[in-house]
Design goal:
With 210 residues, this protein is an alpha/beta fold. It has a single domain (6-209), classed as 3-Layer(aba) Sandwich (Rossmann fold). The protein contains 8 helices and 5 strands; from the N terminus they run βαβααβααβααβα. The protein has helices spanning 17-30, 45-55, 64-88, 99-109, 115-124, 139-144, 159-175, 189-209; strands at 6-10, 35-39, 92-96, 131-136, 180-184. It has a 5-stranded parallel β-sheet with strand order 2-3-1-4-5, sandwiched between helices. Helix 3 (64-88) runs parallel beside helix 5.
């Protein structure tokens, strides 16, 4: 059995990742692919416990390095317990956020720089996405889509922080344009879905011919 595809979704908070992930799963199922949806931080029992710690609004005293290391720890467990085994069995894995999030949110947003990339390379090893869909949206618009009472610890950060995260994502696109596909998240759900599926069609065709 051939190795499965690893697809990740990235973007500022409120960019509509959850909706598009569900739409992509439907598309893949229609085309005969078994897809598993997972998320970060989380995806495993240990990862979900770490998620609660990271996103808890009560943990305002959390140090930026602590935050970055907790994300990497959750990711290491996720790759080891769920993502790599599923890919090795031939499943397609769709993950809501992955290593790019840490580089954008902690590397750029928290100003931790290249150290974030280094610790995450240790966490994931050779388990890297085949394709990443970055849903691009102005941070002000994205944040306005989330109800105030539903905002987590990171979403409650000042707009200045979210602007730096956005800049980080744009830098990642420049560095890896082959893997990271930037999509305007300001369009309709249907238009975004059509664009994502169009890219997936090319990728699946390429996979079949290799």
């Amino acid at each position: 059995m051939s190795k499965g595809l690893f697809i990740t979704f990235e973007g500022p908070d409120g960019s509509g990742k959850t909706t598009q992930i569900q739409e992509l799963k439907k598309y893949l199922k229609k085309n005969g692919y078994d897809a598993i949806i997972t998320r970060e931080p989380g995806g495993t029992p240990i990862g979900e416990k770490i998620r609660k710690i990271i996103l808890d609004k009560e943990n305002q005293e959390m140090d930026s390095i602590t935050e970055a290391l907790l994300y990497a720890a959750s990711r290491a467990q996720h790759v080891s317990q769920l993502i790599r085994p599923a890919l090795n069995k031939g499943y397609t894995v769709i993950c809501d956020r992955f290593m790019d999030s840490s580089i954008a949110y902690q590397g750029y947003g928290r100003k931790l720089g290249d150290s974030v990339r280094i610790i995450n390379e240790i966490a994931v090893g050779d388990c890297l996405p085949d394709v990443t869909f970055l849903l691009k949206i102005d941070p002000h618009i994205g944040k306005s889509r989330i109800k105030m009472e539903n905002l987590d610890r990171l979403e409650l950060e000042a707009m200045e922080y979210h602007n730096e995260v956005y800049k980080g994502y744009m830098e990642l696109v420049k560095k890896d344009p082959e893997r990271i596909i930037c999509i305007d998240a300001g369009g309709s759900i249907e238009d975004i879905k059509t664009e994502i599926c169009s890219h997936m069609e090319k990728l699946l065709r390429k996979q079949i011919t290799e």
